[in-house]
Design goal:
This protein is mainly β. It has three helices and 64 strands.
């Protein structure tokens, strides 16, 4: 897959509206397309995708590409695909010849090659309507091979468009609407001295496109009211104008423009791609063809989207209903409603490593040690940003925190005079009964000195603080400091997670360990066999594991051991090779890439997987079962293969009757 990375200029002090590019799949010649020059795409009633390219007509079942040709073809390349009422697929090439697929073979139109089909042709039942190069509008009864009507049209026509049971011809003079008998039903004159290149009727309104090499204009027409809703100067050639998914799409030689019907929420995507056509398939996926780089497939968004960011390498924290993003050059932003709002900018700082919410009555700027901590306010709450040598902070109890730094591990006590006798950690600090190495310096009670530590966590249920260092993994409670080893070897940990008594540890080599309560460490071999992992995250009872190949959403069983096999879902359809951090916020999953966010509204594979089109074909040895809503397979028909768009399921030696529910899996 190839993914879009968009740059964005920062204007500090004002909100930044972010363009939204949804994650997508990319089909090219290397994936099996006959060519990267794609002119049209169409989905038939059985669910197959038909592709018109430089190399002709191709059928795609999600796994295989099948090309169709015939010796009668003067040219393979074309752009016109339709399905008639008999289930035949019609294809027109750029030489004006028309063909149809019947009995899985390509056949020419019985009467003769058409003069030309420069725009679009219209199929309904047994009727074919088209415009030829001599500017005639022609209607043909296909079964009888009979021309039932032929009329000359305006020679300055620019577009032929089908909608419902009618169609239109757009010319320099205006827009003429016809019925299937080629009778004129209405006419709209040209708009404001300009002529529309294409007009689309939608929801009792008309949307017109006027374009040249210098500009693009889109108007909305409702009755006698004409309103300009979009204007772009210095535009490249427009190759497609569509209303799909309740949005306007303008496909150009230098990318795609998407906007709401009122001309707002404008999104530009796929820069430098020569886009030409778009369809929405029955599952809600958007297919965008390009004449230079294959096909892009956008899954149903359901709120899931890709947001480019001005940050390069950044971290995320969900704090008190806000999602903060911060980087290593002193910037902190808050992301809400897809608006990136600058919160703090300290260019003198090298990095921010963590953000926590605090009680300002317990921590003030005067009690902060050195300049490792910076206070800031956001929407009525006070937060503390950790910077410089401090790498991580975990709240212990009350105002106390566990600090991991480049030279020590300690407990941060912002106000040592504010002792809470009910806190075991306060008593631990004040009594100094742990070790003589504990010293007080700038409100930090040091636990270990001369170590480098970059992550920590706190198990609230068991009152255990965990921290990783360059000499190993340690567990601290008010009675004991112990090093946790596995098979008498030190562990080097890059990520710690503690929540509801569950403690997960990700090692620097991508292995996951688990510690139940205060027992010995367990190496989760049942999970590590699908690793190694580079990130882990805990969301309630789901462990999210990110490898270089996929993301796993795994249910945590009640009893874990070294051989436990995890169940759950996974996806490998996202750009996970570039994911460097992960966060959950308000029931959404945020994946942080080098300079963009992928926001997922669900942890369910069915919404993450870019290819989930349902069953189209069923094969058994020597037998092909036709498409039906339900199909029964005999127990004698072993090694059954089920072909669906981008999925193949194989059933081996099924000793019972199987019923297949089309588009709903197996039952």
């Amino acid at each position: 897959m190839k993914w879009i990375i968009c740059g964005l200029m920062i204007l500090f002090g004002s909100p930044i509206l972010l363009a939204q590019n949804w994650y997508h799949a990319h089909l090219t010649k290397s994936d099996g397309l006959p060519s990267n020059e794609i002119f049209n795409v169409y989905q038939d009633q059985r669910g197959y995708i038909w592709i018109a390219s430089e190399e002709g007509l191709t059928k795609y079942d999600g796994i295989h590409f099948k090309n169709y040709s015939t010796p009668h073809m003067s040219s393979k390349s074309g752009s016109y695909i339709k399905e008639d009422g008999y289930g035949r697929i019609w294809y027109g090439n750029f030489d004006g010849q028309l063909y149809y697929v019947e009995s899985d073979s390509l056949k020419p139109l019985a009467n003769k090659p058409l003069a030309s089909i420069p725009a679009e042709f219209f199929l309904r039942g047994d009727t074919l309507i088209y415009v030829d190069r001599n500017h005639y509008l022609t209607g043909i009864e296909l079964k009888k091979d009979r021309i039932y009507s032929r009329k000359q049209i305006d020679k300055r026509y620019t577009n032929f468009y089908q909608f419902d049971n009618r169609f239109q011809i757009t010319s320099e003079n205006g827009v003429t609407f016809f019925n299937t008998q080629l009778e004129i039903t209405s006419f709209i004159p040209k708009i404001n001295q300009d002529h529309a290149s294409k007009v689309i009727p939608y929801n009792d309104k008309l949307y017109s496109l006027i374009y040249s090499n210098h500009e693009v204009l889109i108007h909305e027409m409702s009755g006698n009211v004409i309103r300009k809703i979009y204007h772009e100067k210095q535009s490249s050639l427009v190759q497609g104008f569509f209303i799909v998914d309740q949005s306007i799409w303008v496909l150009k030689r230098d990318g795609v423009i998407k906007m709401n019907l009122d001309g707002t929420a404008i999104v530009k995507m796929f820069p430098n791609e020569s886009a030409s056509h778009i369809i929405k398939d029955r599952k809600g996926y958007l297919w965008i063809t390009t004449s230079n780089n294959g096909i892009y497939i956008l899954p149903p968004t359901n709120g899931n989207k890709e947001i480019p960011l001005p940050l390069q390498t950044f971290e995320m924290r969900s704090r008190n209903g806000h999602l903060f993003l911060f980087d290593k050059v002193g910037n902190i932003f808050a992301l809400q409603n897809n608006l990136l709002k600058p919160v703090l900018q300290l260019p003198s700082k090298n990095s921010f490593y963590d953000i926590i919410q605090i009680d300002p009555s317990k921590i003030t700027a005067s009690t902060l040690p050195y300049d490792n901590f910076t206070l800031f306010n956001y929407q009525g709450s006070t937060f503390m940003a950790i910077s410089t040598g401090v790498r991580a902070f975990s709240r212990l109890e009350g105002h106390l925190g566990l600090v991991s730094a480049s030279g020590f591990v300690g407990i941060f006590n912002p106000n040592q005079s504010n002792r809470n006798s009910n806190s075991i950690w306060d008593n631990f600090i004040w009594q100094k009964n742990y070790d003589t190495s504990i010293i007080h310096s700038k409100n930090i009670s040091s636990i270990l000195l001369d170590v480098r530590s970059k992550c920590n966590s706190y198990d609230q249920d068991n009152k255990i603080a965990y921290f990783s260092t360059n000499i190993g993994l340690f567990a601290l409670n008010p009675d004991t400091l112990e090093e946790l080893q596995y098979q008498q070897k030190p562990l080097f940990i890059s990520k710690l997670i503690s929540a509801k008594g569950k403690n997960f540890f990700l090692s620097t080599v991508g292995e996951i360990y688990y510690r139940p309560q205060k027992e010995a460490l367990i190496k989760l071999d049942g999970l590590n066999k699908i690793g190694p992992f580079k990130l882990i995250h805990l969301k309630e009872n789901t462990l999210i594991c990110v490898s270089h190949r996929e993301i796993r959403f795994l249910d945590i069983p009640s009893n874990l051991n070294e051989t436990t096999s995890f169940t759950g879902t996974y996806t490998n359809k996202l750009p996970i090779h570039d994911v460097n951090n992960i966060e959950t916020h308000e029931d959404q999953l945020y994946l942080g890439l080098s300079n963009k966010l992928i926001i997922l509204d669900s942890l369910q594979t069915s919404e993450l997987d870019l290819f989930n089109f349902g069953i189209n074909e069923i094969y058994t040895p020597g037998k092909h079962l036709p498409y039906e809503p339900q199909t029964k397979i005999s127990f004698r028909e072993n090694n059954v293969s089920i072909g669906s768009l981008c999925k193949i399921i194989t059933i081996v030696f099924a000793p019972w009757n199987i019923r297949l529910m089309m588009n709903n899996g197996l039952v």
